[in-house]
Amino acid sequence: MSVLKDRFALVTGGSRGIGRAIAELFAKVGATVFICGRKQYALDQVVQDNAMLPGRLIPIQCNVTRLEELEAMVDTIHREVGALDVLVNNAATNLVSGYALDLGEAEFDRAVETNLKSVYRLTRLVAPEMCKRGSGSIINIAAVAGIKPEPVNLLYSMTKAAVIMMTKCYALELAPRGVRVNAIAPGLVQTEMSGYIWKDEHRLAEHLRLQPVRHLGQPEEVAEIALMLASERASFVTGQTFIVDGGLLLA
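User: That's the sequence. What structure does it adopt?
Assistant: Structure tokens below.
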């Protein structure tokens, strides 16, 4: 299978969780995938674990909250391969939680810098070259919390809702220039960031009781949607948010 053979992709937060699953699946179908994250050793481990895939994984250490590092990363990629075919804005944080009236500006700024501003900045850095070539796919990882607010989690819900609207706005403007922009909104998926729920038997049981599909979501299940959106299979799809939550929002 070579759906993305000879294509070039960038996946942020590619050393673990959903980002890693997307990067690995893209490489399995022939893509060259740049993976970025803050920890070089974690990125190197992903590359080592997937050395035999048909595609290639290339690690780039980068903190997505720092504009100068984003600019340097994109400049390097453009020099090496030209315009990217696929950008996956996946890096995010959900560590800043608490009652809305207890949150301060420092927490607000941190959530916005990581979850929202990085998506805005990277799209501005990557999309112009895609537009010049007349093709490209941008995939933003949102969350169901951006559709239905998550209790005691104003900042995560707020920033993910903004990512969904940003996706629609970019899609409207970039589609005539050949670039599609879509979002994926996962529910509870077994990643390190959501461990406080699925590692607690009682919390997990309560969650699954409300979720029509009675199993804990896996990163690979989200990656399959990303692969579809990255490929020509989704050539008539833009501005959409694909909910991957086991039916949770139906409950």
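The first strand starts at residue 8 and ends at 12.
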